[in-house]
Amino acid sequence: MIATDAALVLFSGGQDSTTCLAWALERYNRVETIGFDYGQRHAIELQVRPRVLERLRAYKPEWAARLGEDHMIDLSLISQLSRTAMTEDIEIVMQENGLPNTFVPGRNLMFMTVAATLAYRRGLNVLVGGMCETDFSGYPDCRDDTMKALQVALNLGMDTRVKLETPLMWLDKAQTWTLAESLGGQGLVDLIREGTHTCYLGERGALHDWGYGCGKCPACELRARGYLQYAAAKTAPPADPV
Fold first, then answer.
1. Given pLDDT bands bounded at 50, 70 and 90, which one contains residue 103?
2. Class of 3-198 per CATH?
3. Residues whose CB is less than 8 angstroms from the CB of residue 240 and which lie 6 or more positions away in sequence, other chains included
4. Where does the UniProt annotation place the signal sequence (predicted)?
5. Are 177 and 141 within 8 A, CB to CB?
6. What is the pLDDT of residues 183-222, one digit of tens each?
7. Which residues are documented as binding site for Zn(2+)?
8. Biggest alpha carbon distance in the chain?
9. Which helix (H) or strand (E) holds 127?
10. Which sequence spans correspond to the domains of the chain?
11. pTM of the prediction?
12. Contact indicator for 127, 10 with CB cutoff of 8 Å
């Protein structure tokens, strides 16, 4: 059943946000997207995202009817506030606080706040993000508690009833591939594999089984491992009946 709610999806052009966009298109009769240019090192994701949107529109007529305006927001100030491996050409390493230096402090908090502000103006009452704390790099702003607290703060601060939906929160990457297949079949899996970008280093040379990327950064490792587990589960023989 399609809900009458209208959703704004945080859409980067990566695997997770594309899966979330398909998820929203299956549930809401009006869906818009928002992306952010924050000086990211892998800015190639900004180049692939419009192509992914067009492929999604062409994939299902009902998705084309529901998918509305795309909004690109300049948040380059993020790269001015902190020095991270996501915004500068430096080696990816673990920090003394136990987090990789790919963590951009406040990024998702700012993303959601800006998205909520746009949603207020556009009359959209659902925010959808690809945050996940099951199979991730440990970022504190991807955790369920953070998103729940942020939903409360945003609604108190703007006197709204916006819902923050995070459909991947308790899924690992293999389950995220499986979710994509359940939403759009093998065609959507192939679209995500070939069209989206996840690699932190912006590598888009050879196409691997799991997609484009360097194969070595944390994002590629998660994506590749999840795809291999997903593919293995599909080819595994059925379990013997008990």
1. low
2. alpha beta
3. none
4. none
5. no
6. 999 999 999 999 999 898 889 988 999 999 999 988 899 9
7. 199, 214, 217, 220
8. 59
9. strand 126-128
10. 3-198
11. 0.90
12. yes
User: Which residues are CB-neighbours of 167 under 8 A, at least 6 positions away?
Assistant: 19, 20, 23, 128, 179
User: How far is the C-alpha of 231 from the C-alpha of 222, rounded, in Å?
Assistant: 14
Q: Which amino acid is at 200?
A: Y
Amino acid identity, position 54: E
Q: Give backbone dihedrals phi and psi of 124, rounded to 5 degrees, phi first.
A: -105, 130
Rounded CA separation 34/110 (Å):
13
Query: Nearest 5 degrees, angle CA 142-CA 143-CA 149?
Result: 105
Residue-level pLDDT at 239: 63
Sign of CA dihedral 164, 167, 168, 171: positive
Q: Binding site membership for ATP: which residues?
A: 11-21
Is the Cα torsion angle 132, 205, 101, 36 positive or negative in sign?
negative
DSSP code string of 23-78:
HHHTTEEEEEEEEEES--TTTHHHHHHHHHHHHHHHH-HHHHHHEEEEEEEE-THH
| Lowest mean pLDDT, pick from 41-45, 84-88, 107-111, 184-188 | 84-88
Residues flagged as binding site: 11-21, 199, 214, 217, 220
Which phi and psi (to 5°) does residue 108 adopt?
-65, -30
Q: Which helix (H) or strand (E) segment is 213 a member of? A: none
